[in-house]
Specification:
The protein contains 5 helices and 4 strands; from the N terminus they run βαββαβααα. With 149 residues, it is α+β, with helices and mostly antiparallel strands. Helix 1 packs across helix 3.
């Protein structure tokens, strides 16, 4: 079962990024909930995910967006995490309705700003994900053994 945990530490870093990056100054951080999730998101190479919440969830949470981070996010170095946070914030449009999909302009901004470090993040994450999955398998096997005993 996937669980979520509020990530106020990421929220604080996002506030600084929003303040420091001119193109993100329109974002109202109080409209976003930042969470860590216990499961990998969609695919092995997803380091974060920005979601525009549906009307019911917006009503219940008083938030418009959720930015979630899977376990592999915490294996990255702090600067790499900040790059991922910034990347996810670029999905929030000026009028804060819907999402800005990945486009070459946004991707180029990140690559120009961080050069090849953006690609190094994915290389490191790929090996970290393999380690996390192996650890998950071992934990499941141990739990199975404990349940059978």
């Amino acid at each position: 079962m996937q669980t979520y945990k509020i990530a106020n530490d990421i929220r604080e870093r996002a506030i600084k990024i929003i303040k420091d990056v001119k193109e993100l100054n329109h974002i109202v951080v109080d409209n976003i909930i930042f969470v860590r999730t216990t499961k990998h998101i969609k695919g092995d190479h997803v380091l974060g995910c920005c979601v525009f919440l549906n009307d019911r969830t917006q009503f219940l949470s008083n938030k418009k967006y959720m930015v979630e981070f899977p376990p592999v996010f915490d294996t990255l170095k702090e600067k790499q995490q900040d790059i991922v946070i910034e990347h996810e914030l670029y999905h929030i449009p000026l009028e804060e309705k819907g999402l800005v999909e990945h486009d070459i302009g946004e991707f180029r901004k990140i690559v120009d700003k961080y050069t090849l470090e953006w690609f190094q993040i994915y290389q490191e994450a790929e090996s970290n994900i393999k380690l996390l999955k192996e650890k998950d398998k071992l934990l499941k096997k141990q739990k199975q053994k404990d349940d059978d005993a």
